[in-house]
């Protein structure tokens, strides 16, 4: 067990830090995030189960939202400028999953969030 | 002796329909949420069903998913008419995959699905006949793990 204290950040703070656009569920920006899973392979996400975690991915299709729903994740950040289509965004709205999008790459996003004290799912 | 069935529901999953893949797991999740099931059990049932659905969508023309709930456990049985698995031991090795690039572009086909289903289950059975299809059974105990 890690002795590191748990740190959390609101989605609003993450939005500001990573210069994100909010594509779905802005009403959830107050949600606190403490754990992050970053992957383009959805089975990786489904292996590293941690409810209410924050998904960082470059996979901008409906399966990212379906995976987030099944894995009970709080929100998704799409990196490197990829954008899901409107159907995918609607799907996220219906399931109350916030969607953020940034031009930053995955490595930079993960590094910045890690520097803020957020932890990965291991 | 088999315990009394509280709920049984059958779903049809169609192959190559990437857009709809995941609807069965969402429905299973909704059913379990409605009856107030423990969130950890819901999560595990959702993962098993979702991974199994993705396998069907990637490899089979169609499959039947039978979801059964008893007092003791929850089972998810998936029977497909796909090409079958020639080497089950190999298919259960993490990282082994025969998926196409198109499948990987959908975020799946990294050789983690079957091992993840096995890991998430309390009891796991996988049987297959090449040219005929595959049967997968995942059982999750409600009062264990």
Notes on the structure:
The complex is a heterodimer of chains A (122) and B (145). Chain A is built from 5 helices and 8 strands. The radius of gyration of chain A is 13 Å and the shape is globular. In chain A, the strands form 2 sheets. Chain A has a 6-stranded mixed beta sheet with strand order 2-7-6-5-4-8, with helices on both faces. In chain A, strands 1-3 form a two-stranded antiparallel sheet. The termini of chain A are close together. The model of chain A has no long low-confidence stretch (mean pLDDT 94). Chain A has one domain: Udp-n-acetylmuramoylalanyl-d-glutamate--2,6- Diaminopimelate Ligase, Chain: A, domain 1 (3-Layer(aba) Sandwich), CATH 3.40.1390. Chain A has 122 residues and is an alpha/beta fold. Chain B is 34% helix and 30% strand. The radius of gyration of chain B is 15 Å and the shape is globular. The model of chain B has no long low-confidence stretch (mean pLDDT 91). In chain B, strands 1-2-3-5-4 form a 5-stranded antiparallel beta sheet, covered by helices on one side. Chain B has 145 residues and is α+β, with helices and mostly antiparallel strands. The longest helix of chain B has 21 residues. At the A-B interface, helix 2 and helix 3 of A face helix 1, helix 2 and helix 5 of B.
Name the helicity range of chain B: 25-40%
Total strand count of chain B, please?
Answer: 5
Strand neighbour order, sheet with most strands of chain B: 1-2-3-5-4
- Uncertain spans of chain B, ≥5 residues at pLDDT below 50? none
Mean pLDDT level of chain A:
94
Q: Over all CA atoms, what is the radius of gyration of chain B?
A: 15 Å
Written as H for each helix and E for each strand, in order along the chain, the element string of chain B is EHHEEHHHEE
Distance linking N and C termini of chain A: 11 Å
Largest interface: A-B, 21 and 25 residues
Write the CATH architecture name of chain A.
Answer: 3-Layer(aba) Sandwich
Rg of Cα set of chain A: 13 Å
């Amino acid at each position: 067990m890690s002795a590191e204290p748990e740190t959390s950040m609101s989605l609003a703070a993450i939005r500001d830090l990573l210069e994100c656009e909010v594509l779905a569920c802005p009403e959830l920006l107050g949600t606190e995030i403490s754990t992050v899973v970053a992957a383009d392979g959805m089975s990786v996400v489904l292996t590293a189960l941690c409810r209410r975690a924050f998904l960082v991915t470059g996979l901008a299709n409906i399966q990212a939202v379906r995976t987030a729903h099944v894995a009970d994740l709080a929100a998704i950040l799409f990196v490197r400028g990829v954008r899901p289509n409107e159907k995918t965004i609607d799907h996220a709205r219906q399931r109350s999953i916030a969607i953020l999008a940034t031009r930053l790459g995955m490595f930079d996003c993960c590094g910045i969030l890690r520097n803020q004290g957020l932890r990965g799912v291991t | 002796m088999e315990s009394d069935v509280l709920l049984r529901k059958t779903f049809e999953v169609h192959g190559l329909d990437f857009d709809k893949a995941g609807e069965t797991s969402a429905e299973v999740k909704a059913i379990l949420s409605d009856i107030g099931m423990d969130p950890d059990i819901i999560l595990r049932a959702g993962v098993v069903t979702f991974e199994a659905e993705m396998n069907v969508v990637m490899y089979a023309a169609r499959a039947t998913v039978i979801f059964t709930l008893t007092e003791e456990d929850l089972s998810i049985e998936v029977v497909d008419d796909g090409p079958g698995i020639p080497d089950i031991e190999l298919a259960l090795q993490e990282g082994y995959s025969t998926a196409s690039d198109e499948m990987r572009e959908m975020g799946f086909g990294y050789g983690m699905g079957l091992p993840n289903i096995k890991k998430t289950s309390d009891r796991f059975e996988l049987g297959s006949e090449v040219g005929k299809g595959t049967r997968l059974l995942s059982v999750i105990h409600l009062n264990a793990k």
